[in-house]
Write a structure and sequence with these properties.
The complex is a heterodimer.
Chain A (H helix, E strand, L loop, with lengths): L1 E4 L5 E5 L2 E4 H22 L7 H45 L10 E4 L3 H8 L21 E4 L4 H9 L1 E4 L8 H32 L6 H40 L4 H36 L5 H11 L2 H12 L1
Antiparallel strand pairs in A: 1-5, 2-3, 4-6
Helix pairs in contact in A: 1-2, 2-7, 5-6, 5-7, 6-7, 7-9
Chain B lengths: L7 H135 L3 H16 L1
The chains are: A mainly alpha, B mainly alpha.
Chain lengths: ~325, ~160
């Protein structure tokens, strides 16, 4: 029994300069399915909705209320395409993590000797851990043996088994891409509302705070991307470990029920993380385009009006 | 950073893919559904307003109907009252006229009777005169006695004058 944990997505194949990873592959599948399914629902939309349309409308209405409640009618409607797409994509991308087959369907691939050697130089950080997750700090893919079986560890170096699917948000590139897009649009919204000078003046309200404001703006990229990546990746690890453990326990009924609890939790966290990312995007843009005088008021209003945001945040942090 | 799996090309591909996804998702899925929602909100608002309008109209119509009905009732009563007055007047007039005519007829009948009595009397006098003349003729032819003749004439005249 072994579990496969890799912080970085595995490369499936090389396409020109682009290394197509399993998370990228899953991302394209998720995007394609979302566009296909929701596009078909929207195309066949009737004034009196059916079941599928009802569900989509429920999501859309929830998001619409959220953006209009936080950003107001005008700004809310302007950011709705972005916030809506972020929420729906992240939520459904996170749900892929609990699908059977994601992380458990493997393809065989010959090891790349160079990569393995490169990784060996890095000291292992997880030494002494019960599950021997020794590879977290290394630059390579390693299957960590959960039992003391020596042949399993040896096999990992001879022939790599790559999971075909990986939740898109368990890839820092994906979350970083969304965070950078959000950051860029926040700056665009701020400049559109106040002009370049106005935006700079806004940030340098007491002048000495300007560097802190700049750091604060850029730190949002890291906080947004790292939070989402960390949660989804940790969820994957958690499920992997639970599956491995209940499998190793070899008590017939347990594997049927114990993971269900964690799958339920992952469903919850997937939605919460999608909501957090979408809500923070919305709040950043709203704050950036809010007028100077009621800046503080807007912020207070946002938090007061949507107590879900900090609450969801806290529970997500506590859960993972 | 490599340990986290950061990869420039991967980042760029996923950034572009996500931007395209946002665009396409808005154009084909989220946008149309939002417009459906907006349209429904609009139509619900309109329906509610229309219902309100209809209710008000209904109430107004009901009031108007009531008014018209009351008006009609009042008019009907008025007409009945007028008719009664008119019929009373007509009856009274007819009675008067009948009484007047009856009186006239009576008067006329009395006058006719009086005239006829007069005429009969005249006729009788004439006949009496004729009779006396014929009686005188008979007597004259039978007995040409002037004294008796004169006595007879006088008697006849006296009779006729009665």
């Amino acid at each position: 029994m072994k579990i496969h944990i890799s912080v970085k997505p595995e490369v499936l194949f090389q396409l020109g300069p682009v290394a197509v990873t399993n998370s990228m592959f899953t991302m394209f599948i998720v995007m394609g399915l979302l566009l296909l399914v929701f596009g078909l629902i929207a195309k066949n939309a009737k004034p009196v909705p059916g079941k599928a349309q009802g569900i989509f409308e429920l999501i859309a209405e929830f998001l619409l209320d959220l953006v209009e409640g936080t950003g107001g009618k005008k700004i809310g409607r302007q950011v709705f395409p972005l916030v809506g797409a972020i929420f729906i994509f992240i939520a459904f991308a996170n749900y892929t993590g609990i699908l059977p087959g994601v992380g458990t369907i493997y393809i065989k691939k010959a090891p790349e000797a160079g990569v393995v050697h490169e990784g060996e130089a890095v000291p292992a950080e997880g030494e002494g851990a019960a599950l021997e997750l020794a590879s977290l700090g290394q630059d390579t893919i390693v299957t960590a043996p959960i039992t003391a079986g020596g042949e399993a560890a040896a096999e990992g170096h001879e022939e790599e088994h790559l999971p075909l699917f990986r939740p898109p948000n368990a890839d820092i590139n994906m979350t970083l891409a969304m965070a950078v897009l959000t950051f860029t649009l926040v700056q665009v919204a701020g400049i559109k509302a106040h002009g370049v000078g106005g935006r700079l003046k806004h940030m340098a309200d007491p002048v000495f705070l300007f560097p802190i404001e700049v750091i604060g703006e850029f730190s949002r990229i890291i906080s947004l991307s790292a939070r989402l990546f960390g949660n989804v990746f940790a969820g994957e690890v958690l499920l992997g470990v639970i599956y491995a453990m209940v499998g190793a326990l070899k008590i017939a009924v347990l594997p049927l029920f114990l993971p269900v609890v964690f799958i339920g939790l992952e469903l919850l966290f997937g939605t919460i993380q999608a909501l957090v990312f979408a809500l923070l995007t919305l709040i950043y843009i709203t704050l950036a385009s809010a007028s100077h005088s009621d800046h503080g008021h807007e912020e207070a209003h946002d938090v007061a009006h949507h107590p879900k945001a900090p609450g969801a945040h806290a529970s997500a942090g506590a859960g993972d | 950073m490599g340990a986290l799996g950061l990869d420039l090309w991967g980042f760029i591909v996923q950034l572009i893919a996500f931007m395209i996804f946002v665009f396409l998702f808005w154009k084909f899925a989220l946008g149309p559904i939002t417009s459906v929602l907006d349209k429904r909100t609009e139509s619900v608002k309109e329906s509610l307003a229309a219902a309100e309008r209809m209710k008000a109209e209904l109430a107004a119509t009901a009031t108007r109907n009531e008014e018209i009905l009351n008006e009609a009732r009042r008019e009907a009563q008025q007409i009945v009252a007028q008719a009664k007055v008119a019929s009373d007047a007509t009856i009274a007039r007819a009675q008067e006229a009948a009484a007047a005519q009856a009186g006239e007829y009576q008067a006329r009948a009395e006058a006719t009777i009086r005239q006829e009595v007069e005429q009969a009397r005249l006729q009788l006098r004439q006949e009496v005169a004729d009779l006396s003349v014929s009686a005188a003729e008979k007597i004259v032819r039978k007995n040409l006695d002037p004294a008796a003749q004169a006595a007879l004439i006088a008697e006849a005249l006296a009779q006729a004058s009665n």
